[in-house]
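The instructor's notes for this session suggest beginning with a concrete chain rather than abstract definitions. Hand out the sequence below and ask the class to guess, before any prediction is shown, which regions might be ordered.
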Amino acid sequence: MTINYTPRGVCSRNITIEVTDGIIDSVKFMGGCHGNTQGVAALVKGMKVTEAIEKLEGINCNGKGTSCPDQLAKALKQAL
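After discussion, reveal the predicted structure:
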C-alpha cells in the first residue's frame, strides 16, 4: 500500500509511505529539515505501523502543536 499524505502545520510538503502487511517499508519526506526527516524515515523502516504511531504521535515542534513525526503518525493511521 502506498500512502501519499500532505502534512499540515510543518515545513515538509509531502510524505510518501510504503506499507506491506502492517510493516513500514519506506518513508520519503519532501521538504522539512532534511537530516531530521531522513533520520525519522530510517528509524521507522521495518517497524509495525501501530508501533510507529504510538511512538511518534503527539510530538510537538517549536510550539506548533504538531511536527513532521506527528504528521507521519497521522499519515500512517490511513494504513490501519
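Then share the key points. The helical segments are 34-44, 49-56, 68-76. The CA atoms of residues 33 and 76 lie 20 Å apart.
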